[in-house]
Amino acid sequence: MQLTIPIPDSQNAVRLPRGIINGGEEDFFAFCQANRELRIERSAEGEIIVMSPAGGYPSFQNASVVSQLFAWATNDGSGIAFDSSAGFILPNGAMRSPDAAWVQLSRLQQLSHREKQRFIPFCPDFVIEVASPSDETAELRRKMEEYRAVGVRMGWLILPDSQQVEIYTPAGTTTLASPEAVSADPVLPGFTLQLGMIWNPPF
């Protein structure tokens, strides 16, 4: 399946109405694979959200987040880190691709080989979303609340423009102002994200 979707310069994403992909999960997966240059998500209501590639600063900031999480996960060994190209089918039917995610290894080992090749059929244990200048903060917060509602153990919303980190857990939300680092204890024991280059990219 090949579909070309132009995204105007003034928009960060286009939204396609429910029903445009009618063949179920396999057709939706094929649609996403045929448009890999785009980041695609699906809401719980069936709306397909197609996002444009990231700009320079957001791409660097995302890479910094993913590289730190990946390095910790590789050393720790209790789970697997994913970047924004991974899709997760949430219990409410949404398909989300957080900027970074971590899943406990024992959960992934229960999946079949085929399931591991498709969108992962559950909510991650830990997610990070990094706001870009064109993102609507209210929409990102709704997404973080969605993660919390379907079982994420911890989520971070990083807001580079205001240098804030919003921490989402089942117990509630906490906002940190201009932290130099943020710890994921106790969900990811020992993982601390350094934020210096995210607040102030070296270019």
What does this protein structure show overall?
- This protein has 203 residues and is α+β, with helices and mostly antiparallel strands.
- It has two domains: 38 residues, no CATH class; 146 residues, tt1808, chain A (Alpha-Beta Complex), CATH 3.90.1570.
- Helix content is 28%, strand content 27%.
- It is built from six helices and 13 strands.
- A six-stranded mixed beta sheet has the order 4-7-8-9-10-11, with helices on both faces. It has a three-stranded antiparallel beta sheet with strand order 1-3-2, with no helix packed on it. A two-stranded antiparallel ribbon has the order 5-6.
- Strand 10 and strand 11 form a beta hairpin.
- The longest helix is centred in the first third of the chain and has 21 residues.
- The radius of gyration is 17 Å and the shape is globular.
- The N terminus is likely disordered.
Short overview:
Helices cover 28% and strands 27% of the residues.
What are the main properties of this structure?
disordered N terminus; 27% strand; alpha+beta; 203 residues
The assigned CATH architecture of the largest domain is Alpha-Beta Complex
Q: What is the CATH third-level topology name of the largest domain?
A: tt1808, chain A
- The total of beta strands comes to 13
- Tell me the Rg in angstroms: 17 Å
Task: Label the structural class.
Answer: alpha+beta
Adjacency order of strands in the biggest sheet: 4-7-8-9-10-11
Shape by Cα distribution: globular
Question: What is the terminal-to-terminal distance?
Answer: 39 Å
Q: For the record, what is the CATH homologous superfamily label of the largest domain?
A: tt1808, chain A
The CATH class of the largest domain, by name, is Alpha Beta
**Count of alpha and pi helical runs:** 6
**Range of helix content:** 25-40%
Instruction: Please trace the helix and strand order, writing H or E for each element.
Output: EHEEHEEEEHHEHEEEEEH
**Number of structural units classed as domains:** 2
Portion of residues in beta strands equals: 25-35%
